[in-house]
Amino acid sequence: MMQSRPCGFDVFSNVSVLLDETGKWRMDLLNQNFTEAEAAAIKKLPHNTRRGGDRWAWSLTSHGGFSVKTAYHVIHSSNPRLSFDEEHSQLWKKIWRMKTLPSTKHFVWRVAKDILPTGEALKRRGVDIDGMCGMCGEEAETGIHAIIGCSSVHPFWSISGLTLVTEIDAEVGFKEWLIMAMAQWGSKDLELFAIAAQKVWERRNKARFGEGIGDISGLWERTMGVWHELNGDTRPRDEQWDKDECARWQPPSWRFLKLNVDASYKEGSTNRTGCIIRDYTGRCLAAQTKRYVMDTTVDIMEALAVFDGLEMATRMSISDIIVEGDSLRVFNLLNGKGTDNTRDANKVAHILAYDHVDFLDDISSSLVWLEDYPPLICNALRSDLLI
Ligand SMILES: [Zn+2]
């Protein structure tokens, strides 16, 4: 490090002005501009015979390269009054306040909470798999690896123009990385990142479930397309759905998610509730069916279905949700907080409550599918989306 600035050079002068054409120190300039001790110290520095260009160096690492971990600590120490808890609560607030689809907010929240079903997470939970990334086969599949770290997504993030998306550090998890990135980004950057991250994960899921590795070249364009659609004046998708006035299931506006609930009831037998949460495209975020062994009535079962559905939504931190079921009495009792509808509009929840499903054992009372759904509702889900 230079101890004093050489006179005659401004702050933007490069070290190269002190070197001759063979890359050796120009002693005349050193002696002229530095003290004797400084010139001697500089002279001891090895000169670069390859004459590469000057580059910016990150002063917090010994190698001069950027490190996410050190940057995170700088951000954290720059505001010492902010505890880790406060820092994290600000992170959640920023995620939920994003002007984007609820499913996108929810997705980013899940990555930050480290609850995505990545290879590494499944292995940690005792699933017998190697935990490696199926896209590159080079590293364990953690959340941060799947979204930005994988070599298969590097080209995509490089063209995005977002800062920090190609900078990861093995010691920093996604949450810490995102806190650091948010300190650099504006709200549009964060929203673009969230949409793109969700698309990267969907691409990974398709590959995982044998649907082939999707082309990544158009992914950023599609990300920008979604952002403009959500932030422009027009809402073409909403209009499209508004025109569909038949009795079948109606997707919610892009601003909300929709919860459909139903219950099966037969006196003296085990009854079940069924619920499903979908977004404005009809994509299933979660589905659940739960068993009840007790004497009950049809209205209580229908009310329990609403309760179970809302409880599932709460567990997933989903609040902007529309509730739909087919029990007029129960929904009237709920004081107009939900809508009752015909069986046709509610058939997926109906199947979840009625049709046979294999519970894992006799003790488990509920089955939950996240980002997935049981085969028995496939056809009903598809027909809900046919216009
Ligand atoms: Zn990978």
SSE string:
HHHHHHHHHHHHEEEHEHEHEH
Over the alpha carbons, how many angstroms does the gyration radius reach? 28 Å
- The total of helices stands at 16
> What molecules are bound to this protein?
zinc ion
- Report the mean per-residue pLDDT as an integer: 79
Would you kindly provide a written description of the structure presented here, covering whatever features stand out?
With 387 residues, the protein is α/β, with parallel strands linked by helices. The protein folds into 3 domains: 1-55, no CATH class; 70-231, no CATH class; 257-385, Nucleotidyltransferase, domain 5, CATH 3.30.420. The chain is 43% helix and 9% strand. The protein is built from 16 helices and 6 strands. It has helices at residues 27-33, 36-44, 68-78, 84-97, 102-112, 119-124, 143-149, 154-160, 174-184, 187-208, 219-231, 236-242, 298-315, 328-333, 347-354, 378-385; strands spanning 257-263, 271-278, 284-292, 321-325, 339-340, 366-370. The protein has a 6-stranded mixed β-sheet, sandwiched between helices. α3 (68-78) crosses α9, α5 packs across α10 and α10 (187-208) packs across α11 (219-231). Zinc ion (ZN) binds next to loops.
SSE blueprint:
Elements lengths: L26 H7 L2 H9 L23 H11 L5 H14 L4 H11 L6 H6 L18 H7 L4 H7 L13 H11 L2 H22 L10 H13 L4 H7 L14 E7 L7 E8 L5 E9 L5 H18 L5 E5 L2 H6 L5 E2 L6 H8 L11 E5 L7 H8 L2
Parallel strand pairs: 1-4, 4-5
Antiparallel strand pairs: 1-2, 2-3, 3-6
Helix pairs in contact: 1-2, 3-9, 4-5, 5-10, 10-11
The protein binds zinc ion (ZN).
Zinc ion (ZN) binds next to loops.
Pfam family, one: RVT_3
GO molecular function, one term: nucleic acid binding
Protein name: Reverse transcriptase zinc-binding domain-containing protein
